[in-house]
Amino acid sequence: MTLTRWTGMIIGSNGVVDPRAISVLAKWQNSYSIKVVLQELRHLMMSKENMKLPQPPEGQCYSN
User: Which positions fall inside the UBC core domain (predicted)?
Assistant: First the structure.
């Protein structure tokens, strides 16, 4: 599987989501569903701060 590289306030340069940067993960409760987590990620990714970040070159990939 190939993943396109993306960096931002919630995703570090290694491509891993930083749980400290996402309140729903930092304050995790067993009652949270995947829907709640994905909605919070979507909200954060659409913030003005993240919308201003440059996109990586097309085809740039992660390698593990």
Answer: 1-64
Give CA 57 to chain center in angstroms.
18
Total residue count of the chain as it appears in this document? 64
| 21 secondary structure, DSSP code | G
| pTM listed for this prediction | 0.53
Could you tell me the fold of the domain covering 1-56? Ubiquitin Conjugating Enzyme (3.10.110)
SS3 4: strand
Q: Which residues contact 32 (CB under 8 A, 6 or more apart)?
A: 24
Calculate what percentage of the chain has a pLDDT beyond 90.
6
Q: Are the C-beta atoms of 56 and 4 separated by less than 8 Å?
A: yes
